[in-house]
Amino acid sequence: MEVPPEMLDALAGWFAQSLSPDAAARRAAEQSISSAAASPGFALALLGLAASPRHDLQARLAAAVHFKNLLRRRWPKPDADADDAADLLPASDCAIIKTHLLQLLLTAPPLIQAQLSEALAAAAACDFPARWESLLPSIVSSLGTAVNAGDVVATNSLLAAAASLFNRFRNAFDNNALRLDLKYCLEIFAAPLLEVFLFASRRLQAAATTANPLELRPVFECLRLCCEIFYSLNSIDLPEFFEDNMRQWMTEFRAFLTTSYPPPVEADGAPDALRAAVCDNLQLYMEKYEEEFRAYLKEFVEAVWGLLMAHTASPSRAQLAVTAIRFLTTVAESVHHALFGSPEAMKQICDSVVVPNLRLQDEDEELFEGNWVEYVRRDSEGSDADTLRRAACRLLRGLAANYREQVAALVSAQVQQMLAAYAADRANNWKEKDAAIYLVIALMQKPGATGGGTPVVDMESFFTSVIVPELQAPDWQSEPMLKATVLRFLKEFRDQIPKATALALLPSVVRFLTHESNVVHSYAATFIENLLIIKDAVPVPGVNTVTRSPRYVAADINPFAPQIIQNLSTALSFPDSYENPYLMKCLMRVLGIANITGQIVHEITARLVGILMEVCNNPKNPDFNHYLFEALAAVIGRTGEQDPALLPAFEASLFPVLQRILVEDISEFWPYAFQIFAQLVNLSRPPLSQNYMQLFGVLLSNATWDRPPCVPALVRLLRAFLRKIPNELNQEGRLPNILAISRSLLSRSSTEDSAFYMLNTLVENVGLDIMNPYINEIWSALFTRLQSRQAVKFVNSLVVFMSLVLVKYGSGVLVSSIDAIQPSLFSQILQRFWIPNLKLIKGALEVKLTAVASTKLLCESAVLLDAAAAQLWGKLLDSIVTLLSKTNQDLAQEQNDGADAVDIQKTSGYSVSFVRLQYAGKSEDDLLKEVNDPKQFLVTSLATLSAQSPGRFGPVIEQHVDPANKSALLQLCAAYNANIV
């Protein structure tokens, strides 16, 4: 694989510059890399640089990371859409990569090797084994050579590659194709894996007394990798080979758990890393293959329990303890729970396993002070087994499943003991109170949880006597870890705190927003934000369903909003919280709910714009940046609508930074900038200023649409302009330009949603007099695309668009304009696509639009009212009734799910997937406001039609409408007092 040296040198220079603190140099380098990515052989050049020993290690590592990400994005997938083929790596490059990647991986330094292993896994996920048959035999052959030579380092490199290859079996959806791939891998690799495992185990036994960890570390690593591969190959089912050889594997596993190594070796952490991998395998077998594993269970429970009793200075002991406790938890939750059922065993678990691992450790305090982001992730965002504390509590919950009263008594006594210790010496025993609160958080029932919880305290009394005093304490800056746990308690049980109590405590919580600890002010912000999104179930009158209504509204939060905003603004200037996503998310939520006026609006807008100016220098925190733009959108949206006089101030503040984003090509922020621009345009009154008209010109440039992530935001901005200045499309060839852009978007499945959104926008906002010369062009483009693209999503979008044309311009225009393309084409489209897909339409607005449009077709269109079209008429009615038979519960669910999940991608508009800033605009307009109920519209329209031709439509309904739908139609007629005669 030959890559020109000058190309490698150029790439190395760019990657070195991409790490520069100078924003201009960094962006120039990133642009150079981005431009080079489009050229043939770029992936080969990246691989060549990653493998080049003459270049700087940091540049090589950056190239390896880029290479891995490139393969994840652009490696050809077997089921890839033909539309996206241009973005994929050429087949010739892929063939060269597959030829050289494994060998280059074996010779690379460890850091680069890890990236190349992931790259290999990315390519193998698409090609292995069917299109890369040589890969696994090559690994096995090289493994044999390395083992025969006693080369453990080379063996580990090959095992790492195999581990990344087999990792797919852990989480993939089980199906026949996957099992065939697994069978292939087992046939080739299962026996060699056992050979390597036993080779490394013998090597370890021979050197068990060696006190030099550097000599033994590669052997432990080899065994750990074997255990990882064991897990992957056993994840789907118990393979016959592993069942036949279970005794050999289990004998070695038990030896690793029960053998002690010299203190320097134990302190190195490698033995515990291996033991943790063994415990993962025991966990797997206990969960999935309990019957085959039960013969070994008792001895492994004893071995794992013994490990938890032992204490070492190993840096891997915490991870081992987590996996060991997880295994014991699985046993405790199984039919074998009696192993822990005696009072003595249970007390020993509580005293020797749970409590020691529940108390804060020195490393917890170090993490709290030194890496608050990681502390928060582990403490409040991780899984149950992420930390020792959570794993220990889960073990208790597992025991409580079968021994609830015993566990409750033990834990209740332990909580009281901890609180008594705290009361006796508050200054030195605050960790006892922290542990007591943590126990209550872990074991008490939370809203929406299953399993019943374990009542260890009276919650109301505990809240009043333990939690509230910490919130209201005058020394609120003291014991920050305890304060953080108290705030976590509030967050966990926020739904259970009465509204009046929560509002009374809010001032106490608000002051914690300026606490000097990053964790504490982050937890305070998280509690406030979580509090404001609580919804309560409210029955819908007259309907057997419920809707969800916010518990806290503007009137509740308004008295506190100025102080919350001020404190959050202050906290955002604290060290390490300049880009704290929890603070910004809370600020976003408060601004989106509270009514703020006057000077506060100007101050917070200026503050947010200042922060945005700063992050433009180096956008590195996507969550923070998202909430920052949401906060801006919330200020503009809520206050701008209430007081239009604020718009000039918003424009003066925002235009400089938004223009900087476009001019300096800060690509991460382009979609946000266009959405904010759209919001400002929506708030403006025609005639629009020159600044906006210049932006309109940029919007109509083809180059602006070349970035797929920006397309939905651009369509939203176009929509805003068309609402304000639809007649401007008649000037300077703008409408043909927009239609050309829509055709380009329509040609790719990844952007076809945006093409429909653009066409919908045109029809909604532009009159037929302007659109008429171009309507045939639109149909030609859509139906040409339909010939090769008949996916449900595309056809549904087409049905919605045709419905929109009908509602806006009339059924005659719809039918005649389509038939102008080809005679009787509309009838063919109706029969093949409209009628079958109508019943698949989703979304409240879309269902209403398509149902009303279809009803108008039934009752107004000459094509369908022709006697020869009776069958077509009946089938269309059948689809309309199916569509409208969706339950109110379904529609309520659609309307409520994710409605205020600001950071979740949301589908909006006429069945078009559109990721947007939730606070940056209103919901989509309903063009059929005069139709309150599409069901009533259907039956009253049918009644009117049938009254004009009595006796004509009853037989058609009898013959062509499904019996269930006939019954549903009769019920609708009765409900709305309409008759089809």
TrEMBL record:
Localisation: Cytoplasm; Nucleus
Start and end residues of each Importin N-terminal domain: 29-107
Highest taxon in the source lineage: Eukaryota
Database matches in Pfam families: CAS_CSE1 (PF03378), Cse1 (PF08506), IBN_N (PF03810)
SUPFAM superfamilies for this protein: ARM repeat
InterPro entries with a match to the protein in the record: ARM-like, ARM-type_fold, Importin-beta_N, XPO2_C, XPO2_central
Key word Amino-acid biosynthesis present: no
One example of a Gene Ontology biological process annotation: protein transport
Keywords tagged on the record: Cytoplasm, Nucleus, Protein transport, Transport
GO CC terms: cytoplasm; nucleus
Chain segments annotated as coiled-coil in the UniProt record: none
Similarity field: Belongs to the XPO2/CSE1 family.
Protein name: Importin N-terminal domain-containing protein
Originating species: Urochloa decumbens
